[in-house]
Design goal:
This protein has five helices and six strands; from the N terminus they run ββααββαββαα. By secondary structure, the chain is of the alpha+beta class.
Length: 152
């Protein structure tokens, strides 16, 4: 199945990128095609989220460096998931031993709508400012993220 990215115009839908144009070119005139139309999440906002996570991760100091004699390394993915859980975007799971822990919700484009992603971003920013970048304001964090993304 080919995912097409389209833009709605007064004349109808037109391809939004070259891959979509190429796929539409291969479609036969007079043939029926089935389409499911959704509005994709804002990719730029997605990049902004990961830039913000990167800024926070780089500033974060781990509370411990060893566990039972084993060196512990910082893990960006675990850090992101923990921020999401602390922001209220997690759910409880149980393992075979009966221990309960939280997992982060999926934030894939297929599983999280733009409105929910914007709420996630805002809540994660709150957690970052409360737990990691405690001497930053929201404006400070926004400015650093903009610099990382090359907007400034």
């Amino acid at each position: 199945m080919t995912a097409l990215h389209l833009i709605k115009t007064y004349q109808g839908f037109i391809p939004a990128d070259q891959d979509s144009a190429d796929a539409m070119e291969k479609m036969k005139w007079g043939k029926e095609y089935k389409a499911e139309i959704t509005q994709p999440r804002n990719l730029g906002f997605h990049r902004k989220f990961y830039a913000m996570i990167g800024v926070a991760f780089d500033a974060w100091e781990m509370p411990v460096n060893q566990y039972k004699g084993i060196q512990i390394e910082k893990n960006r993915d675990r850090f992101r998931k923990d921020l999401m859980i602390m922001a209220g975007f997690g759910y409880p799971v149980v393992n075979l031993k009966g221990d309960v822990r939280y997992e982060a919700q999926s934030m894939s484009f297929a599983n999280m709508k733009q409105d929910d992603f914007e709420c996630l971003y805002s809540r994660v920013v709150d957690v970052v400012l409360q737990r990691v970048l405690t001497n930053y304001s929201r404006d400070d964090l926004d400015n650093v993220v903009a610099e990382v993304l090359g907007f400034v």
